[in-house]
Every structure is written in structure tokens, then in C-alpha cells.
């Protein structure tokens, strides 16, 4: 399928109110200092609005974005190294484009290469020698009148919860509804930054032949999966959550895909999952706390163990996630906070460097209400991400129905071919990617 993108305009959208002098330099917290530098792209697709023309849509989005940036002003800034965001004279590039394709063609059989063309920038091709924009936005109009709104937000200063808060605030203002969604911008006070060399995994982003595919699991499939994953799970009496059960299935199917590769048997596996800290702290942080307020939990399944079943993955994952609590937060805030913050990064690096350890990174976004993002012409028809050039990354999103989950899985080509034909995976997947 061919698609041509024409950029019609590029505006510099500034906060509607001037930023006070004392706020023109936004400090990064310790957790932001160890966060990756790439962007997180989210694409929201909308059917053609009724009784509203393109110019009105552009003006509505532009004006409401300007108003929203007054509260979320770091998103209009430029990230300077690993210390701060320059918010003086800040602005967000707001591009308008036309795509010579029908929205239905994209939604029918989503092709990742087409979705990628809708982005205002390459999320993973970041120059480290100069200041970079915190966010970029592109509004794509399709031939049918439908739209694709793309938000590329730097992971250096914001996590999924912050993105969700920003979208809620922007959409609310666009609808003309007065709801004061004001972010709390004090993460650097909660997690003080450190003037130290930050340990980061090497060669995280590679330009090898990785492929990202979407696997959809509906409500009935997830219910059956939870039952299967609960067998043998008697440690705490709690049934697996949908995320736990699906994580276990993806890990087990991925491990099966590796058997026989280069003559190897069953590999060892390290699994990381993102745990958000806002509600785990005592007292909990405000809902709209701005920043990267999360912690990675790392579990391991070693090859010398017996053939792991679904519940084995759930048990190991629960053990490490349970450790992300208020005590963990206090360690991050203490004198040894830097060392504590770097532990998961060092731990995973050591596991992988030892050889024959497959490392899988999971992040669940199902708690974020992307499908409630109504700018005044209805809720999204579909919300998605783009290609991820990082091996063994899995991002979980809610499906458009609200009760299912889309798993966006990135593997190398050889592993993906085996993974997507795994019999246990196919037992539960309701929509598999096209070949």
C-alpha cells in the first residue's frame, strides 16, 4: 500500500501565558536522569467529524494546545543534556499534513510502515550533542476527512501517566469544558538529581532487522488465559491479572521461539516490567504529577529450571513487583538513591553480558485512558504506537473495545516468525498480525 504525506504547514505553538522567570529552567529529577532519551509516539485516529471544517479543527487544536502548555510548560521546552529543560521562549512544533489515503485503509489491516510515515520525527534518531525538543505534534488529514493526531513526547521528561494527563487536559480545553487539570511539577524535589555519571545500557537502539507487530486479545481470550495461568498459583491466593497472564504467555512463547536457534536449548530469560510509583508512595502523589515517576522491576527465569509454565512467570514477576513500594521510594530519595536507581540497569546489563540470556522489556499502558481523548468530535477510533527498534520490547495497550488488550511486540525477524506461529499463543490471540 502506497501513501504520500504532504506537509501543509508548521506552526510554533507557544504557551498562552508567559512563563515566569523562575520557571524558565526546569530541573530533571534523578528518575529523569536515568530515563531514555528517545520519544514515545502515540497516534490517535478519528473518523471524519460532522459539521466542522479543517480550518476550524486546526484553530481549535492550536488554541487549546497553547492554553494547555501554560500548565505543562516543560513540554514546550528544549532538553539540555541530562540536567534541565530550557523553557525560555519555548514552543511546540505543530505540523499539519495531508495523506492521500482513506482512514479505513489504515484501520483495515494496519501496516507499521504506513503508521510510521505519519510521525513528525524519527522517535529513535536523537542527536545527543545538542538540545532537543521535549515534544512534537502532527495533525494528519486523510482523503475521507478522518484524522490521525500524533504526539511524540520525550521519554526523558515524561512517562505514560504524564502523557495521559496532558492529553486529558488538552482534550478538555479543546471541548471548551472547564476542568482544572493542573500538573504537579516538583519531581526534582521528590527525587533530587545527582551530579554523577549516569549508567545507561549500551547499544539499546539498533538498526537491525527488528519487526514490530500487533497481537490483539479480546475479553473472552484474556479470561481463559487468566484461568490457565492460575493453575499451580497458590502462593498468595490471588488470581493473575490480565497483564500478568499476558506477560507470562508472551514470555513463554518467546522462549519457545528461541529453542533450536543456533543450536541452543531453552534460554535463560530476564523480564522487566514498569511499576508506576505515584500510588505506591505513602502518601500517594497527586494523580497529575508530572515527570518520569516509575521504577523497573526485573525477574529472571533460568534455563537450568524445569520447563516453566505460565504460573511460574507470574510468580517470579510478582516477587519483584511487590518490592516496588514506599520503602523502595525512600531508598531512591536517600543518600544512596543514585546507586539504588541504577540497580535494575546494572542488573539487566550483567545478565545479558553473561551470555544466552534473553531480556524482555514490558510496559503496560492499559490504565491510561487514550480512548477517552475527545477534542470535540468524538473519541478515537483507534489508538496505537509505532515501530520500536529495540529488541524484545512489549507494550500493552487497551483495545478499542475497552475490555481487550493489544500487545505490540518487537522481535528480530527470525524470532518473530517462530513466535507468531506458537501454538499456545495462537490458542488465545483473537487478531493476529497479517503476514
From TrEMBL:
It comes from the Eukaryota. InterPro entries: CAT-like_dom_sf (IPR023213). GO terms for molecular function: acyltransferase activity. Pfam families: Transferase. Gene3D superfamilies: Chloramphenicol acetyltransferase-like domain. Keywords: Acyltransferase, Transferase. Belongs to the plant acyltransferase family. This is Uncharacterized protein. It comes from Malus domestica.
Amino acid at each position: 500500500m502506497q501513501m504520500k504525506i504532504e506537509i501543509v504547514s508548521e506552526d510554533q505553538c507557544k504557551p498562552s501565558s508567559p512563563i515566569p522567570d523562575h520557571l524558565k529552567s526546569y530541573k530533571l529529577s534523578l528518575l529523569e536522569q536515568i530515563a531514555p532519551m528517545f520519544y514515545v509516539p502515540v497516534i490517535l485516529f478519528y473518523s471524519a467529524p460532522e459539521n466542522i471544517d479543517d480550518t476550524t479543527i486546526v484553530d481549535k487544536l492550536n488554541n487549546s494546545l497553547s492554553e494547555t502548555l501554560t500548565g505543562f510548560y516543560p513540554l514546550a521546552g528544549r532538553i539540555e543534556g541530562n540536567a534541565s529543560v530550557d523553557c525560555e521562549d519555548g514552543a511546540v512544533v505543530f505540523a499539519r499534513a495531508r495523506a492521500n489515503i482513506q482512514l479505513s485503509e489504515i484501520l483495515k489491516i494496519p501496516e507499521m510502515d504506513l503508521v510510521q510515515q505519519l510521525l513528525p520525527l524519527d522517535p529513535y534518531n536523537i542527536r545527543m550533542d545538542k538540545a532537543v525538543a521535549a515534544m512534537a505534534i502532527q495533525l494528519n488529514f486523510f482523503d475521507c476527512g478522518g484524522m490521525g493526531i500524533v504526539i511524540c513526547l520525550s521519554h526523558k521528561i515524561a512517562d505514560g501517566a504524564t502523557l495521559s494527563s496532558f492529553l486529558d487536559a488538552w482534550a478538555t480545553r479543546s471541548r471548551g469544558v472547564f476542568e482544572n487539570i493542573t500538573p504537579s511539577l516538583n519531581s526534582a524535589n521528590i527525587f533530587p538529581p545527582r551530579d554523577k555519571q549516569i549508567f545507561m545500557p549500551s547499544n539499546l537502539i539498533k538498526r537491525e532487522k527488528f519487526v514490530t507487530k500487533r497481537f490483539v486479545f479480546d475479553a473472552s481470550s484474556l479470561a481463559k488465559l487468566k484461568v490457565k495461568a492460575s493453575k499451580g498459583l497458590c502462593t498468595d491466593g490471588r488470581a493473575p491479572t490480565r497483564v500478568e497472564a499476558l506477560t507470562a504467555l508472551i514470555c513463554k512463547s518467546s522462549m519457545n521461539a528461541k529453542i533450536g536457534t543456533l543450536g541452543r536449548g531453552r534460554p535463560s530469560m530476564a523480564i522487566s516490567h514498569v511499576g508506576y510509583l505515584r500510588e505506591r508512595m505513602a502518601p500517594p502523589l497527586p494523580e497529575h504529577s508530572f515527570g518520569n515517576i516509575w521504577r523497573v522491576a526485573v525477574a529472571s527465569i533460568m534455563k537450568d529450571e524445569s520447563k516453566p509454565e505460565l504460573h511460574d512467570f507470574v510468580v517470579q514477576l510478582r516477587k519483584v513487583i511487590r518490592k516496588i513500594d514506599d520503602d523502595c521510594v525512600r531508598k531512591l530519595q536517600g543518600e544512596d538513591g543514585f546507586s539504588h536507581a541504577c540497580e535494575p540497569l546494572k542488573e539487566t546489563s550483567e545478565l545479558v553480558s553473561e551470555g544466552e540470556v534473553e531480556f524482555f522489556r514490558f510496559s503496560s499502558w492499559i490504565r491510561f485512558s487514550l480512548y477517552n481523548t475527545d477534542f470535540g468530535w468524538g473519541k478515537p477510533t483507534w489508538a496505537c504506537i509505532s515501530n520500536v527498534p529495540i529488541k524484545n520490547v512489549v507494550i500493552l495497550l487497551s483495545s478499542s473495545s475497552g475490555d481487550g488488550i493489544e500487545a505490540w511486540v518487537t522481535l528480530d525477524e527470525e524470532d518473530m516468525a517462530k513466535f507468531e506461529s506458537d501454538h499456545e499463543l495462537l490458542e488465545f490471540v483473537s487478531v493476529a498480525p497479517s503476514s
